[in-house]
Design a protein that fits this description.
By secondary structure, this protein is of the alpha+beta class. Helices cover about 20% and strands about 50% of the residues. The chain has 3 helices and 7 strands. A 7-stranded mixed sheet has the order 1-4-5-6-7-2-3, with helices on one face. Pfam families: DUF4440 (PF14534).
């Protein structure tokens, strides 16, 4: 697991930095989630204008600012991402899925994660994100 000090964590399944820009973007997101104050900046930059998140406990969030607030709460103490894959239905759409293991105050967490990105004129934007507990 990678702690708040950072470092590469997507190292299972033959991953290496630069393998895919969308996997790199996901790793940057988790690094921001594990760094006090970084998540708000990161998600303001990467979220699409009308994103959707489906999270454990039946939580459905379709409000961009609510997502930023939620992602900016208690940082993860450590995380590990494994088995990453990327599917590109078109040049401007990408789907990343992987397994996430993370720890923070309150306990351990494991989920199958899927993030869907859309390429906009100024880069990739996170349009849809879902976490299914394992």
């Amino acid at each position: 697991m990678v702690g708040r000090t950072g470092g590469l964590c997507l190292n299972a399944g033959g991953y290496s930095p630069g393998m895919d820009e969308l996997i790199d973007l996901e790793e940057r997101g988790w690094r921001a989630l594990a760094t006090e104050g970084a998540a708000e900046r990161f998600y303001h930059e990467v979220l699409d204008d009308e994103p959707l998140m489906l999270l454990p406990g039946g939580l459905r969030i379709a409000d961009r600012e609510e997502m930023v607030r939620l992602m900016s709460r208690t940082p993860w103490e450590a995380y590990r991402l494994s088995e990453p894959t990327v599917t590109r239905p078109s040049n401007d759409v990408g789907v990343v899925d992987y397994v996430a293991h993370a720890v923070r105050e309150g306990g351990a967490y494991a989920a199958l994660v899927s993030s869907h990105y859309v390429r906009r004129g100024d880069g990739w934007r996170l349009y849809f994100h879902q976490q299914t507990p394992r």
